[in-house]
Amino acid sequence: MFTPSSQRVRSLRLLMRVAMVSIVATTSVAACGGSASDTADTIALVKGAGSKQTKVQEFGEKVASAALKAGLKAASRELEDTTFDNGRVEVSDIVVRQSGKTRVGSATITFKDSDMSLAVSFSVEDKDNWTMTAKKTSSSAASKYTPKQMPDLVIDRSQVSGTIGMTDGELEWNLTGPTVNWTWNKSVTIAATIGFSNQCPFDDDAKCPAGKNIFVTMPSMQLGMTSPSLSVSGVGGFSLSQPWMRIESSAGDVMLNKDNGVKNANMVMWVGKRKDSFDKNLQLPDLATLNKGLNAEFCGDFSLKIPKIGNKATSGCARWSTGGFVIGQLGTGGEVSTDYSSTELKVSETSITKVAGAAFNTLSAAALKSLPNPTVAFNGAVAKLANASVSIGGTTQGIPGNLLRAVGQGDKVIEDLKNSQVNIGGVISADSLDLTVSAPISGTLGDEPMKLTLQTLQLNLKADSSKNASLDVSVVADTTFGYGTTSAPFVTTISLVAQVGTDTGLGLVVNAHGVPSTADANRTGNTNDDKLTDPAHATWVWENAFDIPGYNLWNMTTQVGIFKGSPQFGYNSTGYINPTNDAMDKMVTCGDSNATQTKVNEPCAGSDWLMSQLVTSISVTEPCFAWAFDGGSTGTTLSFSQGAVRTQKFKIGYAPRGCTVGTGDDEVVLPKAFAGFQFVTKIGGATAAFAFKTSTDGLTAMMDLENVKLGAFTYDQLSLKSVIHTDGTSETTFVSDISFNSGTFTVAGELTTGKDGMYQKLVGDIDVSGESPKGSWKFQDNSDGGKDRFSVNNLHFEETMKADGSGTETEMDLSGSIRMKNANYDLVNSHMKAVNGVLRELHFEFVYTHTVNGNKRRARFLIDYHLGDGEMNFVGRMDLRYTNKFDKEIGGYKYVRHLDISVYLEMDLDLVAEGGKSQAVFKVGGTFDGANISGGMNCEARVSTSPDFHCRGTVKFYKKNVGHASEDWNF
Questions:
Q1: Phi and psi, residue 520, nearest 5°
Q2: 3 state DSSP class of 12
Q3: Distance CA 635, CA 732 (A)
Q4: What CA–CA distance (Å, rounded) separates 807 from 801?
Q5: Number of C-alpha atoms within 13 angstroms, CB side, residue 918?
Q6: What's this model's pTM, rounded to 2 decimal places?
Q7: Do 645 and 683 contact (CB within 8 A), yes or no?
Q8: How far apart are CA 210 and CA 239, in angstroms?
Q9: Structure letter (DSSP) for residue 66
């Protein structure tokens, strides 16, 4: 063991005595790149209330803050203002010393609109010549930084080096960062050596966002994707100031699937707004919602495979997401023949000679629904995307004459429409065709009181590989009913529908549709999602329909024909119930929060009107019935039993063989084996919802409760859904938000069964998103003025179990934070995994923090266990830390003292199966740091085939006018 000599002991004692009688006022410079050795030449800038510079002490000599400011201003106007580069960079924690005519020191710089900061040293000659330097230091947990714009990226600030400086008034950035690797949404990997700059990473500034930005640049990077398989180099960057990122690369030939790809592709990935585009005539949907904010686009030359269209290679773009892709092609040309050979509808004539563009996508119906605008546009022609199908849009040179003759049109009409330019759109897949052609026409039918002004002729052709086909020829007309100024206008569609195949038949369909107000010009008013917002100013097909005051008929479809060998009469209507009508006063209640609401103090608005829909089909082969009324999200209800029960939504339907009523946009389809019931009611302030549905797909049952009180507990939400499929698989989910006097918690579960086994998941959370009491579980001591004695700030529990033919696998995660008086107890990243009943992984980490009057005590406990094939590893660790900081001002001087003690104990046990080598390692050590003394010691004992024990230690002393001394131990 090492023993210091007596002469060294005497020197150390003398140094410590001198250190105790001389007080040095310093600020913490370690984080800014300084050290204790700079103290003799350091002016410590002490900041008081309001962050104003108050007093500066240079070891006994007072310096007025005005004089210091004047000195800083003479050295650097930028530092005096604590910002530079047009406010992009803020400077704080400034420590300055004079070195000849140059002022040098340390500071912390922070980039605008971010929490990204760097410790720098600086040298200032004058306002036009200065340099700030960042140097690489030791990496630590505190140096790791995650930009708020890039949540999956970690930057080690300790590895940033280089300068920001001004030479003869010219500002230059030369900051280089580490090489970073991160993954975006589990699908895109990026590796790049980064830098920092105030300039756009691209030569074209228009590609970058406007404003005062600090950019993280990636001048050379490697990007990879798994599907499609891609590994390319590129260039890019992102902003620390706002949500923006852009990456560009030449991606070569990219195949999205076996049929569709892009040759010589240019790749652009971006987050945020993008100003430029590959071609302004091609507009593809934004897929960022499927990629955690990221858009990815490949543009170049390709040929999109379109079933039944003779296509040619042109240019276009593909947008990629984790949920699928959308590919759009401009100027396809191509032709389509209406001779659909697999059906009995054979009208041979080529019809499409010009197509503005085509698009194909592999997005699911749910993904399409989540997009802000699931459409594509080719030279202004808009086509709606359909799952796994090609959407086309453009023009055609007339409607085929043979088709017009097939529906009884004369030669004059045929000649006019064959030579006119008409619009075309539709969806084509490998086994189906759905095309719509529309052409403007003019003329009138009938006279007052029923007069039709013809507007549009529409043709719709559908066919599939099962030899089913239909042809629908419709005339759309503005209709007036009545005489002169007293007439009421609405829209009428008259359709002739012919079907061949399994649903062979012929029918006549007539639809009458009201006219919306200006505010609802773009709404159909036929569904709750597209409900009229201003029904009070709409024009109805029939006001006070069926002599029911307050019930107005908005849309009505009647269908007469012979289908599947049976006569059929179908009826479908949509109506609105006016809650302001006197006859409805006692039946309709508006609003969803006040059960006693009256129209005197809270009148019903236009959006409070109730929708009602009736569907019926009288037929031997396809009978069906459905009726519904819906208050939607407004909470408008129908009242029963003098308001004791209020029903917000009621739906009932029955269709044993399924049925179809209407055509085109007014078509309503009920599936086979359909039986459904839905009921939403309000009782007091509570809401209860029940739903039940059967079809050929299986059975679905749902229940929702809101604001239901049971004793001391309130169920803010309780949802249960169960789906049983006809193939034997099932899914059951439930979610429950429960509140009581001390807080709120959420429990959610999922159970799935099928041919591949069973999957179960259970999640529990304490809600910390709101104010008290929902902010945490708080338990107060009323005997002590109602102070919080115990609170659960957050708690998360998650358990999953998978079971199949190979066995079972269970995983559990637990984390949370509990506070008792001034102490915090944090459970961090606790995890357990068991396979077939055997514990394979265990990680438990617990942190205790207690702060009183600025003095902090911290303890950390860690257990980590891993069982692999033939080996077991067990790690246990305990960390203790005590920090005491105090300062006092005497006679205009500010004296600062601190004490920081850290101790750790660690055990690492490695056991290997018979024939291998096992060992155990025990470690103990710690550090201490005071105003004039610091040091530490680390000991390690190793038990193995080669046992070992050793310790190392250091003590350092410092005192002004005496110097430095240190002692090291190693045994």
A1: -110, 30
A2: helix
A3: 28
A4: 11
A5: 12
A6: 0.48
A7: yes
A8: 11
A9: H
Record the tokens describing residue 15, joined without a space. 């140094």
Taking alpha carbons only, the member of 244, 52, 224 closest to residue 148 is 244
pLDDT in tens, 17-37: 323 322 222 222 233 333 332
DSSP label at residue 603: P
d(CA 963, CA 968): 17
Which two three-digit tokens encode residue 384? 């709606």
| DSSP assignment string, 174-227 | EEEEEEEEEEETTTEEEEEEEEEESS-SSS-GGGS-SSS--EEEEEEEEEEETT
pLDDT in tens, 204-255: 999 999 888 899 999 989 999 887 888 899 999 999 988 899 999 998 888 8
Between CA 477 and CA 479, with CA 478 as vertex, the angle to 5 degrees is 105
Closest by CA to 124, choosing from 105, 138, 139, 108, is 105
**719 has which bridge partners?**
704, 735
How is residue 314 written in tokens?
């042109």
Residue 111 backbone class (left: φ over 0; alpha: ψ -120 to 50; beta: rest): beta
Contacts of residue 558, Cβ cutoff 8 Å, sequence gap at least 6: 509, 510, 569, 570, 571
Task: Tell me the two tokens of residue 51.
Answer: 């962050």
State the burial class of residue 486 (Cβ atoms within 10 Å of its Cβ: 0-12, 13-18, 19+): exposed
Q: What angle do CA 226, 228, 234 make, to 5 degrees?
A: 80
DSSP string, 533-573: S-GGGPBPSBTTGGG-TTEEEEEEEEEEEEETTEEEEEEEE
Residue with tokens 């008259």: 494
Nearest-angstrom CA–CA distance, 751 and 759 = 6
Query: Which position has the token pair 């084996």?
Result: 673
Helix (H, G, I), strand (E, B) or coil at 680: strand
Which helix (H) or strand (E) segment holds residue 269: the answer is strand 261-271
Helices of type H across 658-701: none
CA distances from 581 to 602, 633, 800, 934 (A): 15, 21, 55, 85
Identity of the residue numbered 347? V
pLDDT of residue 439 exceeding 80, the answer is no
Digit-coded pLDDT (tens) for 47-67: 222 222 322 322 222 222 344
| Strand-pair category, 188-197 with 170-184 | antiparallel
Of 168, 88, 85, whose CA–CA distance to 128 is shortest? 168
Check if the beta carbon of residue 778 is closer than 8 Å to that of residue 743.
yes
